[in-house]
Amino acid sequence: MMDASQRQAADTIVRVMGGETLARALEASGAEATPARGFVQELAYGTLRHWGTLEAIVRSLAHKPIADPMLVAILAVALYQLEHMRAEAHAVVDRAVAAAGDAVRPQAKGLANALLRRYLRERDEWIAKVASTPVARWSHPRWWIARVRADWPAQWERILAAGNEHPPLTLRANPRAGSRDALVARFMAQGIACEPVGEAGLIVSPPRPVRELPGYDEGAFSVQDAGAQIAAPLLGARDGERVLDACAAPGGKTTHILELADVELTALDADAARLPRVHTNLARLKLASDRVRVVAGDAAAPASWWDGRPYDRILADVPCTASGIVRRHPDVKWLRRASDVASFATVQHAMLDALWSCLARGGTLVYATCSVFVEENEAQAAAFAARMPDALRESPVFPAGAESSGGQLLPSLPGARHNQDGFFYARFRRA
Predict the structure, then answer these.
(1) Which of 52, 128, 179, 217 could form a disulfide with 139 if both were Cys (CB 3.0 to 4.6 A apart)?
(2) Torsion of the alpha carbons at 302, 305, 311 and 314, rounded to the nearest 10
(3) According to CATH, where is 3.40.50.150 located in the chain?
(4) How far apart are CA 372 and CA 137, in angstroms?
(5) pLDDT in tens, the chain (431 residues)
(6) How many CB atoms lie within 10 A of CB 108?
(7) Which distant-in-sequence residues (6+ apart) come within 8 Å of 354 by Cβ?
């Protein structure tokens, strides 16, 4: 099973580097249907987080270029196990050699064995050798490194380092099902270590399958990063108001809004295939009602879905590069291209302008992304404020301990008081 796991993880990585999303690649590799699903996921996610470093070491170890991407991936998975999982070296090498013979060709077994044993003998030398290359040093694409460095000259190193960390399992207590303190006590009584974060969150350590946690089926909590948990309180919806969550799927922020206030809410998303997850989350958290509409539609084209009644609050959590959440989605940094930033910015511009027309006088719109790129964030917010004379920008208030710069939440390194992904928030009131 372990040999199969290595092959499946390597196959997943080859698919991702060929352009597939990690979720689709895992499914296509057969990993999702195996008992070792969790182990394969750990190998694939972890190897992709450190792909820049691991691939560079593999290719440096070989005297001749390795043409087969599957062999490179198998060796990278093995290096991830050796370096980051502290697995037993003999077993890792044997399984990688077997996987190379089965998945590539019999002759690849000798090469895999030689390269891995060379690495074990000369580990420090090879790590030092590749560290001089930015992609290997930071394990991000070259263009990504350059953009983060230009956008964040004082913080760029920590932002890149944070993107390579293993994310925490962060939950959001549902106040309609009980207090956070009660949920913490329930977890602790079963030996599940956790600590509060933000206003309603808690971090479970070590991470575990969420469905195994007590209270999941009862709707006692949701999975949501601490940075994402800021959106609903910042929106500030009040009982009786009319609210639009403009890019709602899978429903994390939709349900948070409904947990905090009794409102008439429209959950909108352009991708109809993602809307069943919104319904599922509403049902599990016992938030579904005739005052909640789940609608397929393009936020940039309100005529196709809007009834003409202004909204008091609009959350515009717009499509973006997802550059702030790469520790959770490590495939993103290898799938994105430099041109994608401007493409997303164009979409965001159109959505903001269209949604503003749906907002009531005196209403509030919160613009949000899970990006760290300024073009999608502060530059977008500033340009919107400049072209909309009735848009009054208000400074966001973040929880204590949340590392931020203006409206930008910076992704956290381990040990941070408010352990969060990278998010951006801008709040506007319509005069």
Answers:
(1) 52
(2) -70
(3) 228-430
(4) 20
(5) 446 899 999 999 999 999 999 999 999 988 777 778 899 999 999 999 999 999 999 999 998 999 999 999 999 999 999 999 988 999 999 999 999 998 888 889 999 999 999 999 999 999 999 999 999 999 999 999 999 999 999 999 999 999 999 999 999 999 999 999 999 999 999 999 999 999 999 999 999 999 999 999 999 999 999 999 999 999 999 999 999 999 999 999 999 999 999 999 999 999 999 999 999 999 999 999 999 999 999 999 999 999 999 999 999 999 999 999 999 999 999 999 999 999 999 999 999 999 999 999 999 999 999 999 999 999 999 999 999 999 999 999 999 999 999 999 999 999 999 999 999 999 999 99
(6) 21
(7) 299, 300, 301, 302
Say yes or no: domain 169-223 is CATH 3.30.70.1170: yes
Give which of 391, 180, 210, 231 is closest to 284, Cα–Cα.
Answer: 210
User: Is-catalytic flag, 358?
Assistant: no
Six token digits for residue 286: 């016992």
Amino acid at 228: A
Q: Which two tokens stand for residue 317?
A: 């959590």
Give CA 329 to chain center in angstroms: 5
Architecture of the domain spanning 228-430: 3-Layer(aba) Sandwich (3.40)
The enclosing H or E element of 75 equals: helix 69-84
Half-sphere exposure of residue 61, counting CA atoms within 13 Å on the CB side? 27
CA dist 5 → 1, 35, 83, 93, 370 (Å): 6, 10, 18, 14, 31
Name the 3-class secondary structure at 182. helix
Place of tokens 């994608």: 340
Q: Whose CA is closest to 255, among 293, 285, 210?
A: 285
Top CATH class of 2-135 equals mainly alpha
CA distance 193 to 312: 40
Question: In terms of pTM, does the model score above 0.90?
Answer: yes
